[in-house]
Amino acid sequence: MKKREMAVEGKPNPKPVLWVATPQRLIAIDMSKLKINHYESPKFEVLPLPLFNMLNLAEKDFPFGMSCFVRDSKLYMVGGEKPKPGASPLLLPRQPRKAGHDKLFGDRGLSPYVYVLDLTGLDSTTDLDLRKHHTSMLAAKPIPIVEEIEGKIYVLPGTPWQAECLLPVPTFEVYDPSIEQWKPLPEPPFHEQRLPRSQIYKFVPAYNDIFIYIQFDRVYAAMIPSNDKSTPTRYQHLDEVDGDLLNRDVPSIRGVVVDLGEHEMCIMQPGITDSEHDKLGLAAPFYILPLSRSRNYYIPPPQPKLVVSSYSRLLMLLMFPKLPLIMIMVQDIRAPFLSITLLSKGFYDLDAWGPEAPHICSAFFHQLH
């Protein structure tokens, strides 16, 4: 039985929750109800996404396009943008000039604020009581990119909907939950206002040299040489995870990779389709186990060398789209280095998300006890 489903005798089973932040919603997904539902199966059907609850952030007057992270039984939501009073938040991605910014909110309509949801208790998903935190970021961050590394939270701004909007400084900062303090960091040399999609690269918690990533609607694993600098990075296409015909018919808008702890990972890819369901999402948790590292691997052409330290792991997550495309287009892998076991895999109806595009800002896994 998987570790996250084990219960202590005399106590209720923990709730495995996948928290997903879209520009307009905070969604709590019940991972215990995800099923194996292959497109090619004669019994295939599009299932409703199993939800604990969903909070419409726009209706509650929260910023549009916040990202979330979970730490120490608390869910934090940071950043975002606020349209001018009376304008629908949905106008920001569609007609940003018409939506404008609420100049009286935050920094010219960009949010430095932090909101927090207490996750201590099995009923945390019943009342999504998101409240403003007593700390704020040092600078506003539209559509922020959030990564947790060794207990600290690193935040960079994404591209604001109004592209001509200048980003407040510091653009890069870190939050230490143990002392509840934000600190500025030097701007990374690769940072530009138009950053690529966030959270589509995640290191496997049990291994500091293997990460999972999504590129061009495909799911890959990469193993970074941590000791022998002359060894090239190794790659494997995870066909077990994304190898489904329907996935090719549903162009992904913005997928995420989520670590579920130790050897378990999950990908979620939302998309738009012409079928009776306007929006569909692929959800696939899976278990990873490296094969013997003494085997002969398929080796692609030499690549830039990477040092797997805490800080460079963060840079790797953010810099990866800058590396040569050959690193992400390896299809013919003759000697895989990972064994993949699907825990579930299915396509789910995302129409409950409402009129907004199926765009995921961030996602984190947490077990409620």
Structural class: mainly beta
The unreliable regions are: 1-8, 193-199, 293-309, 321-334
Q: Give the DSSP E fraction (strand runs of 2 or more residues).
A: 25-35%
Main sheet attributes: strand count, strand direction, barrel closure: 6 strands, mixed
Global mean pLDDT: 77
Radius of gyration: 20 Å
Helical percentage: under 10%
Helix run count: 5
Order of helices and strands: EEEEEEHHEEEEEEEEEEHHEEEHEEE
Description of the structure:
- With 369 residues, this protein is mostly beta strands.
- The chain contains five helices and 22 strands.
- The protein has helices spanning 91-94, 96-99, 239-242, 245-249, 310-319; strands at 15-21, 25-30, 47-48, 51-56, 67-71, 74-78, 113-118, 131-136, 145-149, 152-156, 172-176, 181-185, 201-203, 210-215, 218-223, 234-237, 256-261, 264-272, 279-290, 338-342, 346-349, 362-368.
- The strands form five sheets. Strands 3, 17, 18, 19, 20 and 21 form a six-stranded mixed sheet that branches. It has a four-stranded antiparallel sheet with strand order 4-2-1-22, with no helix packed on it.
